[in-house]
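_Per-residue structure_
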Amino acid sequence: MGCKAACQLLIAFGVFQFYCVEVSAAVGYWRSGLRSKVYKAIVTPSETLAQQRAGSPETVSAQCTEWDVMVTINPDLLGIQHPVQASDLTIGGCGVTSQTPTAFVIEAPLQGCGSNVTMVSDEIVYYFTLDYNPSPIPGLPIVRTNPAVVQIECHYPRNHNVSSNALNPTWVPYTSTISAQDVLGFSLVIMNSDWSGPSSSNIFYLGDLINLQASVDSTNHVPLQLFVDNCVASDGSATTYTFVGNNGCFTDSKVTGSNSQFITPRIAPSILQFELDAFRFYGVATSSVFITCRLKVTLASQAIDNLNKACTYITGLSQWTSVDGSNQVCSCCDASCATGQKRRIEMARRRPGRSVKTTPVEWEKTLVVGPLFLEGKHHPAVSEHLTATEEKPAGSFMLFLGSMLVVLALTCSAFLLYLLYQKPQISN
């Protein structure tokens, strides 16, 4: 009897162990399915002969996801048996986020850490620069390695956004519009000067304000509020200029003292209008410009915060102001608004059962408008007016001088005639 009970106990324990193993495997498979999709990554080796291994697949590797790029660096970065220090490695000012005895890791958000974005044929490419700047050996004023630079690229299909959702249509001249699973329709349009409708021309002059209107169609949806998270101008090559960044900070007015701004107040929560002071890329032959903006929405009932805002720098007041009235959310515009917060959200996402308030992927879209053609501005009418104004006083003066000469000539003639015809007086 005791033996029978022991056998039953062993069988039950075996069944329970088998169940645990299978459930663990299933959960592991389910979790792996939630991992972000991986996209094409390119690491360009350093061209320095003395550091020919720097940036090679053996020393640097990268993994691009829809959210960020994860760069793994071998401590023997240069391949010369002199390990580098973690503090000497940065990507656009962002340092090492984790490390092991055999690797350093830097996680950089796609729209952060000095990234640049451009369109190449049918791809959207994010560029990052890994910088190695050796610090002196502790206690000694010397170094045993040279600086190195490694270029990293993340390639995404242009007929997809970085969240892997299809864009339809991908490209419409001057206007870009997509639908998000037939639920949300995002739009980015170049507007005419009085905001009454789309611009009929794609030609602008230096000194003009380019009117852009971002909107979302949320028909049959709960009320939403739209934000412009990031905007980058490109000339179609690797030359780019970010004029809206840091999660909704209109940096152009702060950096250049321009008149660029978000329009206050909003005409609707689902619409955000903004003006960009026209510019050209220095030293570039072409004057065409493409504008790529990342739009996102939140519930209209949700309070704005550091990651969801629209802030303009007012040069005259030397301060940041919010379109939605809560200026305190703009206080991070001179630093990094995403520091710590995005990472906490991502960590919470990876923990089973952890509730976290985040923006659904389909509520964020990247749109492109262009090309816009920028030309130098001429004012022929003003030049003619100035010429006429300058010539008028000269003509009046000559007329006056001529008149005076005529009067003087007549006076002299009369006086001479008087002297000639006057009879002399004979005295007795």
